[in-house]
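Standup notes
- DV: blocked on the single-chain target, sequence here:
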Amino acid sequence: MSTVQRLELLRPRDLNALIGDSFNAYRAHFLAFLAIGAAVVIPVELVVSGIGLGQLTGHYSSKTRAGEQVVNAAEIYLLIGPLVTAMVIHALLTVADGERPRPGAAIVSGMEAFRSVFFAVLLAAAGVVGGLFLLIVPGVYLFVIWAFVPQAVVLDGRRGGAALRRSAELVQGSWWRVLGLLLITGLVLAIPAAMIAFPAEALAKSADRQVIALAGQAAASTLITPLQTMILTLLYFDLLARHQLPATVPPVPPPPA
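- DV (later): unblocked, structure below
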C-alpha cells in the first residue's frame, strides 16, 4: 500500500470539520468507499426489496405500504448501516495509519465484526421501537443516545448492553448537539441522494417498472451511506476527545505478503 496523508481521528471537530474531513477522505479514496457501499447495499437491496418485496418484477407504485416502510427501516438500521459502518471504520483506521484503504480487507473485517454489531444494534432497535410505541419523545431520545453503538462494538470492543452504555456515556451532556449534527448531516446528504433517486423514480413511473426506482435507491445508498457512516465515526472520536476518554482502537492487519 502506498503512503497517503494521515487522518487524525481522536480530536474535537465542529460541523465544518466533521463534514469537510469526511468528504476529503471519501473523495481521496472514492473507489474504495464506493466498493464498500456496493458490497453491502446491492446484495441487501436485491434480496430484501428486490426479491422479498417483489420490486424486481413488480409494476411501478408511488405508494409505500406500512409494512414495506417497516422492512425498509429495518433493512437500513439493522443491516446496511451496521455493515457499512464496520467496514468504513476499518478503512478509516488504515487512512489514519497513512495507508490507502483496501476495500477487500475492509469488507472482510466488517463481515467478521457484523455478528457482534448486529446483536448490539438489535438491542438498541428494540429499545427505540419500544420508546416510539410508548411516546414519540422517548424513542427519539434513545435513538440519539444509542447512535454510536456500532462504533462502540468495533472500536472499543463493547458487546451487547455494554455497547449501548458506551454510546450513552459519550452522548451524555451533548444530546442536543448530537441531535443537531445528525439532522444537519442528514439534510446535507439527502440532497445528492435525491438527485440520484428522483430521476430513476421518474423513469420507473414512465416505464411502469419498480425495479428502476429500486436501482436508483440502491445507487444513492451506495454512494451516500459510506460518507454518512464516516461522519458518524468521526463524531464518535470527537466525543471521545471532548470527554477525554480513551479509545481502544484495534490494529489494522498488515497487507498480505
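- Follow-up: The chain is about 75% helix and 0% strand.
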